[in-house]
Structures are given as structure tokens and as C-alpha cells.
Amino acid sequence: MNKEKRVLLLCQHFYPEMISTGMHMTELFSALNRRGWAITVCAAQPSLVLDGEGGRVPKRILYQGIEVRRVWSIGSHSGRMLQRLLFASSYFCASLIFVIANARRVDGIVLTTNPPFLGLLGVLAKKLFKKRYLYIVYDIYPDIAVKLGVIRRGGILQKIWDRVSKVTLACADRNVVIGRDMLELVRGKLANDRHGRIRLIPNWSDDQVVFPVPESTNELKKEFCTGFALTVQYSGRMARTHNLEPLIEAAEILKEESILFQFIGDGAKKKMLQKMADERKLANVRFYPYQPIERLNEALSMADVAVVCLEREFTGLSVPSKAYGIMAVARPILGFMSPDSEIGRVIAETGCGIVLADPTGESVAAALREMIKDEDRLKLMGEKGYLEYKRKYTLNVAANRYSEAMNEVF
After folding, report:
1. Which fold has domain 6-204+394-409?
2. 3-state DSSP call for residue 392?
3. Of the chain's two ends, which shows fewer C-beta atoms within 10 Å, N or C?
4. Would the pTM count as exceeding 0.90?
């Protein structure tokens, strides 16, 4: 019924860049297209394509009924700070031109917080072209940048950035947040009469792509985990907000036990973590690149215990949504995060794992020993997470809720 409703998605990452935001936006808007929404995507050239094919993606492609337009950009999201800044800035400028040229052809706009100032284009489209917009908040800026030390607390840049963030949130016809902790922070940035415009829609995992794979048929587990009785896995970005160091320290404490510590992915902390493992000569720690989306279910199913983490000080500023993929393969979670965080609450409410608020090598090793000593309990944790996932965190559930929110707005 929504075919007449044409929506423009501004998102830096989209298919074939099936990493993090790119994967989530590709899955979500493919599902929305199947629900009748006519979608045009304005994206940048991919920084990382998992199928290994090099070269640039065509400027215009049709993907599952979605028109994907690639605008000009330089730099790389996976490079150093200057490269990332160039990538974000050039994409913003090119998207600005795209919005001015195409805003009249669509009924509404959906934006994400990546890159941080992208929401300004929603404000611009609303003021100049009377277009409504829905703003998906994945990260809260400038708060994250301040805590990372990228900008100075109380400085002029923080004040300007904070003002821009509040204007973008206030002008949005709907703000979608992905966690209860994030909801509280966003409310604090808005006047009370704007609170009714916020929708809480958690992230998801696609149960058509990610599902439990038995050990007997898991070829990746046979290839990567041979020689160890148990596998403790971290899969995803190893960013500065992720407190993964205690996992290496725990691996040193448990190096005489038949436990593999497996890191899959990339990010700012990867080289540092590899150095920690090398200096300790840890044969029980292994690093692997991101696995293709077609093998994601196998990759996540390798874990006997899966780690999800977020430094306590970033609670509510971001939500580690990889937890839903872990729940989708029925694996127990070891969480390094505040119990008050969204994922910390989910773990406690479902009983699908254990939360360590301030992990150390010793406390992680002790928690792992506690978790793995009872195989039945470990399996039960995974099953509890899986049942809650099927009820609340599938792509189908999320797409229905986004479609409802978009119908309210557009």
C-alpha cells in the first residue's frame, strides 16, 4: 500500500558493504521494499567488500528493487583519522548536492548518525523543501567524540556540535533509538514536547541468514577450532569503545586449558590486541578477518561462549547490536558492560549470559570457568537467548516497527 510513498535513505554504507551499519541498512530497507516502500539510497563508495572483489562499485545499481546511487567520496572509513574525516566530509558534501537535486522527487527522508553531521541534511530538506525526515540514532554525538578525546570537553567545537545535534533531533519528525539507555539520553537533549516523537526500535538479526549451525555440519568450526575443547569468540569491530583487553589477559591465565580465544573482524584496536597476544606468546589466541555474510551463521556458531562489550562510560551512547546475532545462533553471552546498558538489561532479563561491569583478566577467567563447568547450563543460556530473539529481535519484527513509524511520518 506504500508504493506511492517514495523514501530517500541517506546512508554512507550500503550493499555490497555488508559490515555493521551497511548490513543493517541493507537488510532493513530490503525488507521495507518488500512491504511496499519505494526506496532510493544515496551511499558512498564501499570501504570494505567481503567478497574480495576490488574496484569501485557502479554509480547506479538496482538491488532487490532498491535504487542505489553512489555519490563522490574520497578517503576511507577503514583508514586513519584523516582518511575517515575526508571520507565523511566528502560524502556529506556530495549528499548535500544529491538532496538538493532529488528532494522534490521523494515523499520523505531517512537518515542515520553516520557520518555525525548527516542529520543536517534532514533539517535542510525540511526547511527548503518541506520534507519530513526520520532520524535513526546509532551513536550520540558529540558525547562519544568527547569521551574518546577526539575533541576537548567544554571547547567551542563541542558546543557547536552539541547545538547541531540538538537541532537535528528537535527538527526530526521521528527519532528512532536502539536502546532504553539511549532513549534516556536522547530525551535529555530534547524539550518535553518532543519526547513523543521518539520511537524505541532495537536492532535485529535476520533469521533467514543467521541461525544455529550444529557442530557436526559447521565446516568453519572444523577448520578454525580443531584442537580445542571450547571456543570463546569475539566477532565484529574492535573499536576504541570496546574493552577487549581483559579477554587477552584471561587467555593468558587460561593458557594451559583447552580453550581457544577467537577474534573475528577488524578495527582500531586489532593491532594492539595482536601485539598483546604476541608479547605473551599465546598460542590459544587467534585472529581472523571478517567472514562473508553467507558464512556468518557458521562463524557465529563456532562460539561456545560469545563476548559482547562496551566500555561503561559509553553506556547509552552506542549499543553493541552484535548481541542479537549471538542470540540468533543460540549461544550464551559474556558481556563486558554496565548492567544498566541495553544489552546488559537484555542479558539479565533473559538469563542468556553473564555481565561483568568492570572486567579484569582475573574476573573474566573466573566467569569463563564458571560458565563452562556446566554444559547444560551453558546450553540453557543459549536457548533462553534464542527464544527471546525469535520473539523480539528478528528482522521481520524490526521492519514492521519501522514501517509503522514511517507511515506515521510520511
Report:
1. Rossmann fold (3.40.50)
2. helix
3. N
4. yes
